[in-house]
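WARN retry 2 of 3 for item q-0093 after timeout on previous attempt; input resubmitted unchanged.
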Amino acid sequence: MACFESADLRFVDITSFIVPGSNYAGYLKAFGVVEPKGFFPHQWVDSLEKVKFESLPPQETFYGTLKQVCILDEDSEFCKRVWVEEGMRTICDFMVWYNNCNMKPFLKAIEAQVEIYK
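OK item q-0093 returned
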C-alpha cells in the first residue's frame, strides 16, 4: 500500500480501498460525484521553466499520448476563458486550477465512501 506519512498526517493511496481495475472516473461515478472537465498540457510541461511560462500554450500542446487525442476547439476556448477569468499569470496558476478540478470531486467521493463505512 502506497503511503506518505508525517507526525500529523497520513496520505494513503485510495486504490487500496477500491475495486482492482477501477479508474478515477469510475470511482467518482460510484459515489455520485460528477467529474468536471479540466485540461492540462501534461507532455508540454517537461521542465520547471515551463511552469513559469506567462501565457496559455497553443491548443496542440494539449495533445495526450495516452489517449492520442488533442483537446477540442471548444475545450481550448474554455481554457482560455478560465485563464482570463481566474486572472492567471503563469502555467503554475493553471496547474493549481487543474489540480483543484481533480481534487475537489475526489474529496467528495472519499467523504461519501467514509459515510458508507460509518
